[in-house]
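We modelled the chain as a single entity of 228 amino acids. Its sequence is:
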Amino acid sequence: MARTGLLITLGGDGSILRAARAAAGYGTLILGVNLGRMGFLTEAEPDGWQTVLPRVLAGDYWVEERMMLRAQVPTPVQGDALNDVVVGQGVLGRVVRLEVRIDGDLLTTYVADALIVATPTGSTAYALAAGGPIMPPQQRNILLVPVAPHLSLDRAVVLAEGACVEVTVRGHSPAALTLDGERVAGLTPGETVRIEASPHVARFARVRERDYFYRTLMARLVPRETEH
């Protein structure tokens, strides 16, 4: 990957997420061709890649950089995520108790199915389904969204840029740590996950206008009216 200048993905947003983690740290550009369902992160559609790819190869593009998260657990587990880091149920059907500190100060203890720690990119993914706000992708703020909270804070929280989040598993139920939907570790009570902005960013080759985000958002989220 260190000698790769352009990484082309054929698939949906899941393919982009895997490519972003693989390319993290190398500065490799990503160009996505949408063969999936949503395609929030892709740049070309199946019927348009023949126009997009030659422009990128000719240098006629701009680079969009998106924030990534880094999650660290004392047992040497470390990884980056483009969408989100989720600390959730380790045992199906049992809520988890999660103590959350921001820059060392106690925020709250969630009793919930999970806590989503998302980037602005991830604000249109799992976090959106859980009731979180939509954030512009150029921001570098971390978003906290609880999933099915029980008698605890039930609102999303947007943190200041540069914030560090520490999530400690409390109570008796184990938890699971996932990065962009992939489980990477089990967590026992007392273990802490440290989450902050990664030193790496995801870099995308774009040929469309720089203000594309909201148009793409509406096209993906709002069903088109059908003709009668």
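As a brief sanity check on the tokenised model: The CA atoms of residues 34 and 195 lie 30 Å apart. The two ends are 50 Å apart (CA to CA).
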